[in-house]
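Risk register update: the risk of archive-format incompatibility is retired. Evidence:
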Amino acid sequence: MTEFTLVNVLGGLLIVTSMMVVLSKKAKPAAYSYALQSFVLVLMFVALGAATASNELFTWAGTAFVTKVLVVPAIILYLAKKVGDAGADLAPRISPTLSLVLVALEVGVCFAVVQGFSLPTALEVKPALAISLAHFFIGLTCIVTQRNIIKQVFGYCLMENGSHLTLALLAPQAPELVEVGVATDAFFAVIIMAVVAYRVYRTTGSLDAEQLMELKG
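Archived output:
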């Protein structure tokens, strides 16, 4: 198995772990699933770095391991501990079956789109590229369909993982500073969203996003 083939195979695992995040009813299992996905993403960076002789991607892998596999899930787990079982009973706006159908459609559309790509860096990793693009829509689906605010945070995390992978696939020689900027933005965004979610819980006693649809003066 070549490194490029390994990248595409690991890309398939990203879809599996994304569905684990989307379908998890509680924040803790979703956090562990996200950590697992991020670890798969790290392995993809390593495989892609070996395939393209890109030392930058090895640095990306190390940074992603610290921020995505360790720090971000730890922040969400700490938030989940602070709010207890709040939000666990909030059913998503659509059924799990419909969620699976939407994800399948999103992946299918992205596979069709990348067939027209002719960039040299993308020729051998088109399946992984399609999956990386699909993650933007999977994350958006998670944000739109979930009522639990913490689960909506995971939607953002899925979108960020997808954009991170897209950048690695299309520009494997990009400077480490670019990756640091991406990782830093995501890190602080998750912290801010976690603080906001906790403040919402303290104020309303709930994590239901539907209770925030109206401003009350």
